[in-house]
Model the fold of this input.
Amino acid sequence: MKYNINILFTLALTICVGFAQAQIKQLKLNRVAEMANVPQPLKIIDWKLMAQNFDKTVYDFKAKGQYWPMIWIDSTRKNFDQPVMGIYTAVGDVRQGTNNKGMFHEALANMGAVMGASLIGIDKSNQNGTNYVAMLKNYFNRETKWNIMMNNTAPEVALLGGGYGRDWWYDVYPNVLFYAICEQYPNEKDFDWIARSIAEKFYQADSILKGDYNYSYFDYAQMKPMKNQICAQQDAAAGHAWVLYAAYKKFSDPRYLKGAISAMTALESNKINPTYELLMPFGAYLAARMNVEQGTNFDVQKLLGWTFDGTAVCREGWGVLTGKWNGYDISGVVGSTVDHGGYGFLMNTFDAAWPLVPTVRYDPAYANAIGKWMLNAVNASRFFYPQYMPADRQTIPQFAAVTKGVIAYEGFAKTSTFDSLYTDKKGPVAQGDGPKWVPGKNPEVSQFSVYGSGHVGIFGAIVEKTNIEGVLKLDVLATDFYKNKAYPTYLIYNPYAQNKSIVYNVTGTDKVDLYDAIAQKFIAKNVTSKTNVIVSATQSVLIVETPAGSKLTTEGKKLMANGIVIDYMKN
Done:
């Protein structure tokens, strides 16, 4: 009898150990650990609706009201013999519209708005008879021989604003945006050869740099790294790597994979946190993805730490903000953790979600951390919009109507960054830098950020509410560009101290089996429309909607259903 009990105990222990091994152990991010489990005051707005409203309101050439419309046509025909739409960087920006021959408009605004709208299903290649996608070609600077996408169409207006040809992230990021749009519109005329040109330039640049990205920018015409008064931006390597990996997936050219690995190796080799602006989270995403797709061994934890921690040296304190300011949880927004006690920015927060949410598909160990961060970021981001921020915490609440409910402040800070202005405001103070760009000329309303607000489609495509406030359903595939074929995949994080039953609505109409890539098991079978899913307290599920009755096979650590990966970390 004693012998049999021992056998049963050993068998039970074996089963328990096996189950424990199957569960993906969650890894912490220190900065996320500082955030509230359930941020207060809690309110999740409809981000897809906000993105839809932005598009139909801002892309209206007949819009009425002071400072409207927000778009115009630039007929200078730089780089391509076609007109291009201009979109304001900030409301009332005196550099723009009919001023400066209509030439001053930014790819960050134009491309961000096109990409965001496309993510929520709007066809920007044929919207009321206009092809806004084709117009983006004018940012391809072939007249200057740079032959990449740049933030302006020509050097004549470059010194009017930030970035063109002297500030590396401004030159790299338009190409990241373009590659995303290129996947969304694969049949757009000229896009393939433009994408190929960009990849060649980035591959050659990485070859010339030989692992040393310690420069202010790169001259892609002379093919020379350059230094100026702007500090070195080693995280440009993350932008190079993302574009090159996308190019590899698009064109199947092994040189681009080699270049992506080289750039990632250069990024990871830095001894200090080289975060500058927007690019580091793309490096973290690529580390996770390339590790499972290409067998690399990049340090995801290190790159995520650089993204979040606020330990950047050159751009001092750049990272993810945490804390409660005068009763308001502001954790999750991206920006300076030190400027006036903290200064978070709308566009940076939207754009960080683009690479970070799909990271969990390739490394589910960060599901809890990314889920908790997203809840905080999504909740706090409504405070950028005047209709969601109390009037006494805004610099210019009297002008809120000019935003038509779709344009937000550029950021919010713990105390006003204008120093001598708005000093009576208690933080978080919703504000923007527009008046500083053209002192004495740009109006107060230029604190409202059109260019940042245009990226709202990223949240719109990723974020969906569930039946429980504060429990989000995040579309992991929405911004996973150039991915291999995949089944619908969603991250659901439960921030509460109790288990929660979530009403899970499936994507299509066919029967599916729900596989949880964190528990590494099927949690529901033959679901046709919806089912209840239990999410444990402060834990996540990463649900893959697998066709019912799929044939399961394994290849190394990959678990596949009908030949499509549903789990990259299967034990």
Observations:
- The first strand starts at residue 71 and ends at 74.
- The chain has two domains: 41-460, 484-567.
- Residues 52 and 122 are 8 Å apart (CA to CA).
